[in-house]
Write a structure and sequence with these properties.
The chain is an alpha+beta fold. The chain has one domain: RelE-like (YaeB-like fold, 2-Layer Sandwich), CATH 3.30.2310. The protein has 4 helices and 5 strands, in the order E-H-H-E-E-E-E-H-H. A 5-stranded mixed β-sheet has the order 1-5-4-3-2, sandwiched between helices.
């Protein structure tokens, strides 16, 4: 089982959701995503290459897997609205362009213990 941690932005995304949506997502994140992150998700293309997307109902959970740490870093949670600036992928692309995405993930990874 993979440990799941959220970046500050990912956690803010989740906190902004209604309680029933948070509970629904938590069940699926801790169940399926933490168990089998590759088989339940799709790899994203440029400019989000290296990231994966897990579709959970109407929401997308965008994350990166770190096999050496048995860890998943969730960077964004939201809906897909291709023509809107609030689209989960557009928000993540904007963070990456500002250099804030790598910084957020590094901060999260510091909280994972070193593998033995």
């Amino acid at each position: 089982m993979y440990a799941v941690k959220f970046t500050g932005e990912g956690l803010a995304d989740v906190k902004a959701l209604p309680k029933d949506a948070r509970n629904f997502l938590r069940k699926h994140i801790l169940g399926r995503l933490a168990q089998e992150p590759y088989s339940c998700s799709k790899e994203l293309r440029r400019p989000l290459e290296g990231w994966r997307s897990f579709r959970c109902g109407n929401y997308r959970i965008v994350f990166r897997v770190y096999d050496d740490l048995q860890a998943i870093a969730v960077a964004a949670v939201g809906r897909r609205f291709p023509q809107s600036p609030s689209d989960v992928y557009k928000k993540l692309e904007a963070l990456a362009a500002q250099g804030r995405l790598a910084e957020s993930v590094l901060h999260v990874l510091r909280g994972f213990p070193r593998p033995r």
